[in-house]
Amino acid sequence: MPLPVSLLAAALVASIGVLFATTQHHRITEDNLRHSGLLIFQPDKFQGAKKTHRYFEGWYYKFVTSNDNAEFFGIDANLSLNGDFSMAVVPGIFLGNATNSAESHAFVFVTLNGQRQHYYRFSLDEFSYANSRDEIYIQVGDNRFSHQGVSLNLYPREDDADLVLRGNLTFYNTSSWPVSLFQLGAMGPVGWMPGLECTHGVLSFDHEIHGYLTVSSTREATDPKTISMDRGRGYTEKDYGRSFPSTWVWIQTNSFRNNPGTSLFVSIARIPTPLFRWEFPGFTAAIWHNGRLIPFATWSGAKFEELRVSEDEKNQQSKKMESNYRIEITVDRRNVPEVLLYAPVNLTRMEPFVWEALRATVHLRLTNYQSGEVLVDDIGDYAGLEVHGDVQWLVDNLCGKIPSNRLICL
User: Fold this and answer.
1) What pLDDT was estimated at residue 6?
2) What string of DSSP letters covers 106-165?
3) What is the pLDDT of residue 9?
4) pLDDT reported for residue 143
5) How far apart are CA 379 and CA 259, in angstroms?
6) pLDDT for position 258
7) Where are the alpha helices (DSSP H) in 312-371?
8) Is 227 left (phi over 0), alpha (psi -120 to 50) or beta?
9) Most buried of 152, 205, 219, 243 (most Cβ within 10 A)?
10) Where does the source fall among the domains of life (predicted)?
């Protein structure tokens, strides 16, 4: 018989309390936690060192440079790089259903301007990492990724790619989601629950980029194109676990026209509990504005007023009563190209099945709920958008929507 919800919550609180009791005589700062040696407080580090099968881990790096910042040399129509540029680069590792699975491999996949994906496959022997206090990175082949920047040397090797991509990018003024004993970054206290299907982390809401990339294609006999990323903007997140949820909506942009440095992140998902056969709607969202984090999540008491999804746009409204903020978001994906991305499937393989747009447009309005003061009313460009699975289930069951047939949500 399943435990009552109250007992489950009590068990989680008790487990956190044990950790708190062992550290209450010490000063517990975020820096202490991040250097404690416990990976749960260090989401940027590789989490899968002890995993042998049924596991994936991926880091999502997004780079954007606008018309005003871009310098393009030798550009032609073949790569459709026409003065503005957005790119996602995702390194990671996948371990199949058996320890010696032929499907286990490391990877890097790339999409430019929301066009086709390029998937570079590597052997597990070509994946390495550093998790020391002084040095944190992952390396896939000749490509290195860290919190401070990336070094790329990608070329096709009889895999699903035809892009040659090289360059070095350095990040400045990164801004991570803070961690504490009771709020494990984007996951909040839910991050303490063992056996989660998928764990998410926001490693940097926004940062400045400096460096250059060279791009060419093996499809066409053309000279490499050089792209200046100086003064571009970046964003970094990650996922790790057994598999993606069956249903989710994801939105991200940090390219607001009148509020440089402001970043929006939204994730709404259908979440299975690890111990029982229950599934719950949950969401976590945040605005990074003027160097301050404003979270909106089910674990923080935020509630949805409305969620609408159509073929042309996705509209979401949410309010967080405790902090007296309200956000209204409208995402326009009309006439926006989408690319089919690789993701783990059935714990056995990686294959393309997730559609993502990288050039959607977001209208964000952030309001002080009590005073009515409008803090942000702006348009965000180059928005990442994924709408996957039975989204109507989220519309019907999202916490805060009346009536709701769910007792709790994560």
Assistant:
1) 33
2) EEEEEEETT--EEEEEE-GGGEEEEESSS-EEEEETTEEE-SSEEEEEE--SSSB--EEE
3) 39
4) 98
5) 9
6) 97
7) none
8) beta
9) 205
10) Eukaryota
Placement of tokens 């598999």 in the chain: 243
Q: Is 124 left (phi over 0), alpha (psi -120 to 50) or beta?
A: alpha
Q: How far is Cα 333 from Cα 160, in angstroms, rounded to an integer?
A: 26
Of the candidates 45, 237, 41, 32, the residue with the CA atom closest to the CA atom of residue 130: 45
Nearest to 157 by CA among 139, 141, 178, 137: 141
Residues 6+ apart with CB under 8 A from 329: 251, 264, 266, 315, 316, 317, 318, 362, 363, 364, 365
**pLDDT confidence of residue 290:** 94
pLDDT of residue 195: 79
What is d(CA 210, CA 172) in angstroms, rounded to the nearest whole number? 8
- Nearest partner of 55 among 248, 344, 352, 351, judged by Cα: 344
| Segments making up each domain of the chain, as ranges | 5-397
Per-residue pLDDT, 82: 53
pTM of the model: 0.86
Angle at 359 between CA 206 and CA 149, to 5 degrees: 35
> In this structure, what token pair is assigned to residue 135?
């040095």
pLDDT in tens, 206-221: 999 999 999 988 877 6
Torsions phi, psi of 14, nearest 5?
-65, -40
- The CA distance from 170 to 149, in Å, is 4
Most distant CA atoms of the chain, gap in Å? 67
What is the rounded (10 degree) CA torsion for 130, 136, 139, 144? Answer: -150
How does pLDDT run across 4-54, given as a tens digit for each residue?
333 333 333 333 333 333 334 445 676 777 666 677 788 889 999 999 999
Residue 198 CA to residue 72 CA, distance in Å, equals 39
**What is the pLDDT, as a whole number, of residue 101?**
79
Question: Tokens representing 76?
Answer: 């032609």
Rounded to 10 degrees, what is the CA torsion of 115, 121, 124, 130?
A: -40
Strand-pairing partners, residue 235, are 62
Nearest to 350 by CA among 21, 152, 94: 94
Residue 171 has which token pair? 């990040």
Q: What is the structure's pLDDT at 114?
A: 81
Task: Say if residues 46 and 57 touch (Cβ distance below 8 Å).
Answer: yes
